[in-house]
Design goal:
Radius of gyration: 18 Å
CATH architecture: Sandwich
Distance between the termini: 50 Å
Largest sheet: 9 strands, antiparallel
Low-confidence stretches: none
Helix content: under 10%
CATH superfamily: Jelly Rolls
CATH topology: Jelly Rolls
Order of helices and strands: EEEEEEEEEEEEEEEEEEEEE
Number of domains: 1
CATH class: Mainly Beta
Length: about 270
């Protein structure tokens, strides 16, 4: 079996001799944040976190993408937080790309490693601590939970990619498939964080246009991605941020797999103004 790879070479600073040319762009429909611009000088330190820095690559913005925030977190060994989430309304989806850490949820410890996924319901008591001899690196998606009267709250999830079979799209011979950490038929959850995998040469053969917002972080490989009117080359470490109804399609360029971590909001009525 091919070894899974998750991009985790964050930080650094481009040299003074490098060209300014970049595919970084922010439009009314989408943004592309290439890996080379996620440097040491654009990180934040967060309240109640120790030995930690964060790249905040998405946040709710009126008239653009309004439902979620996405962080890349780097926590040094022994660092972490006993008060990680300041907003009791916020749920968390976490995907680890490097290192080891422990999440203590409602008094029970859960060990996470590269490839681990955690879903933490809004209002939960939890803490996080990096373990091992190297930094723990992970994606953290925060979203205000859209509570529905008469629908029970979703439970926490702690799992790993290896525990989930790829779900292939119909009529693709498995060349386009999704790893789903949350059951798509479970209406208690109002967001998903999946891994989408394309084999070399695979494609999204139509312009997806839908109400869901997206954060797409490329974990592995490269592709040409269609965003609204533009074709953009993306590779491991790049981030694409899409507002609702931004048309999208993809050609996976090879020679290896193209994989990305995908956020989307789901399973709720739209709010009427």
């Amino acid at each position: 079996m091919e070894k899974k790879r998750y991009y985790s070479d964050f930080g650094g600073l481009p040299g003074q001799t490098e060209l300014l040319s970049s595919k970084a762009v922010f439009t009314t429909a989408y943004a592309v944040i290439p890996k080379r611009v996620m440097s040491d000088i654009v990180t934040s330190v967060l309240p109640h976190w120790t030995d930690t820095r964060a790249w905040i690559i998405a946040r709710p913005m009126t008239g653009f993408s309004e439902t979620f925030a996405q962080y890349i977190m780097e926590v040094q060994p022994g660092g972490g937080s006993d008060k990680p989430e300041p907003d009791a309304r916020a749920q968390a989806a976490i995907f680890m790309v490097d290192g080891e850490m422990t999440i203590t949820f409602e008094g029970q410890e859960h060990a996470l490693r590269s490839g681990s996924f955690a879903y933490i319901p809004a209002g939960s008591q939890w803490s996080l601590r990096a373990k091992g001899g190297s930094a723990a690196k992970f994606h953290w998606v925060r979203k205000v939970f859209d509570k529905v009267e008469g629908l029970e709250l979703p439970p926490a999830i702690f799992t790993h990619e290896d525990e989930h079979e790829l779900s292939a799209m119909p009529d693709t011979d498995g060349k386009w498939a999704t790893t789903r950490f949350i059951d798509p038929a479970d209406g208690r959850y109002d967001m998903h964080l999946n891994i989408v995998t394309f084999e070399p040469g695979a494609t999204i053969p139509f312009m997806e246009t839908h109400v869901m917002e997206h954060g797409l972080f490329v974990l592995e490989g490269k592709a040409v991605y269609r965003l609204n009117d533009d074709w953009v080359e993306v590779e491991a470490g790049d981030f694409m941020w899409l507002r609702a109804y931004c048309p999208q399609a993809c050609y996976a360029g090879g020679p290896g797999r193209f994989r990305y971590l995908l956020y989307k909001d789901v399973n709720r009525h739209v709010k009427l103004w």
